[in-house]
Structures are given as structure tokens and as C-alpha cells.
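Suppose you are handed only these lines of text.
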Amino acid sequence: MIWVAVVGDWTNLIFKWILSGQRPYWWVHETHLFQNSSKPHLDQFHITCETGPGSPSGHAMGSSCVWYVIVTSALNFARSSCISSVQSFQRFHLLRSILWTAFWVIQINVCISRVFIATHFPHQVLLGLVIGMLVAEAFDHIPCIYNASLKLYLQVNVFLLSFAVCFYLLLKLLDFDPLWSVTKAKTWCANPDWIHLDTTPFAGLWRNLGALFGLGLAVNSEIFIQSCKGKNGCKTIFKLMCMTANLTFLQLYDLIEMPNHSEALFYILSFCKSASVLFGIVAVIPYCVHLLIREDERKLRL
Ligand SMILES: O=P(O)(O)OC[C@H]1O[C@@H](O)[C@H](O)[C@@H](O)[C@@H]1O
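From them, the structure of the protein bound to 6-O-phosphono-beta-D-glucopyranose can be written out as follows.
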């Protein structure tokens, strides 16, 4: 899921630079389509002022690729344990209908909300939705990610970074400013406080690189192997405790505000924050839970 989310978001950035889509909240002020008196008024909200280009929608894409992975994985898991009788086959069909209905309800809500807050035109969210599903489907055919070594994680990170930077420089060389949309956002956002540095194209890139790096470090670490790949790894109690601890940890982590007076510092900290979040939830917390369970078992034996 993390692979799909990271590569999906990176693909979104590249598509955004290629397609250079406008966003309604600034387009409406600049278009010559309307006479001054017939210009529609678009309400802006604190999450309206996205600073990247509009097409395809990053939120629609992120949501569709991640939920696609969740639904298809759950169905694969259920299919393998439900093929024995007619009754379980019917149950599987029911589960499939429920999960896909939930998938579409979520996607439709995400798409409508992005259009409602004037950050996207409808075709941009639809494009995001479709590309997100395609990225997720593509990863279904790349099984090597499950056993990827740290070296592969680093190589993919270097590739993603260098491709994005080279593409950025190429656009600059062609006299096209890849950050044109940031200027538009700053000009037309109704409230300067609603312009967030974490929505800029490079902030997303560094966040994603950090996440993949953190995941690579975690799944190749000794503590991950001892905890998640060990005998505790398949216990339900271990999984439940990890989930609870991780969700609490993520809520607390979200409270950490990053200084945004310097862009470079913000990007470096974004990288470090995502890397440490992934390392924390994939390796450190499961290891602590594993120690806790082991200690409990030891006490019970005594
Ligand atoms: O294109 P949307 O739906 O407005 O989404 C923008 C978001 O797109 C994501 O891809 C970026 O990582 C975020 O930084 C950005 O805020």
C-alpha cells in the first residue's frame, strides 16, 4: 500500500507538470469567458488553496489507489479461504459487492468534496480516480516489492528524485516555470493563511521519498524481522496491539508542527518526518509490542 501511495503520488506530480491544469478558485478570476457582471462567485475554504497544478487530482488519485489496494487485497484473502462450499462462495460474492460499493461511495465523496471546495474541475477528479486505480493495478503485477532489499528501496528513491528533478530542469530549460501554480495560488487565495507549504509539488516529493526510505529501512531491519516475521507476528493480539499503538502514535505525530519559514528546511524535515513515521510504525512499535508480549509470556511461565 505504501509503495502504491508513494509511486501514485509521484506519478501525480509528473502528470500535474505535464497537464498544467488550472484550478477553479484561480481560473474563475482570470478567464475571459464571463463578463464582469456574470462572473460566478466561488467560495473558498481553508483547504481550497492548493498550490500545485489541478490535473489530475492528487486526492482522488491517492484515495483511489490506496482503497483499490485495500479492497483487492481483502478480496484475494477472502477468496482463498472461501472456495470450499456453495454457501461460502455466495458469502464471498456478498462481501465483494459490499467492498466495491464502499469503494465507490468513498471515491464519489472524495471527488465531490474536491469539486465543492473549488480546487478541481470534475474531469480532473475523474482522471485522478482512473490513474490511481491503474497505478494500483500495475503494482499487482510487480511482486518483487514484497521482498525488496534496502538497496532496491534506495535505488527507487534515487530514480524518483532524479527523474523529478531532471523533468523540472527540462521544463525550466524550455522556458516553462513548473512552479507557475504557486504564484496563482498566492495571487488568488482569499486568505494567505490558507496557503500551506506542504501542498507544494516539492513538499509532496520529499514526503514520499522519506516514506519509501523509512519503509525500506524498517522492513530490512533486525527488529522488524524479530517482531513481525517472528512467531508473534501472526498472533491476533500482536496485530491488535500494534494497530492501537500505531494509531495513537500517528495522532500524536500529527501534532508536530514543522517550521515553515525556510522552504529547504521544511523539505528536509518533511523527509525526516515521513521516514521516521514509517520506521516507527513498521519496525519500532511492533518491536516494543513484541517485547511486551514476550515479557508477559515469560511472567506467565514463571
Ligand atoms: O490535486 P489535489 O487533489 O488538490 O491534491 C493535492 C495534493 O496532491 C498530492 O499529490 C500531494 O502530495 C499533496 O502535497 C497535494 O496537497
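What can we learn from it? The chain has eleven helices and no strands. The chain has a mean pLDDT of 92.
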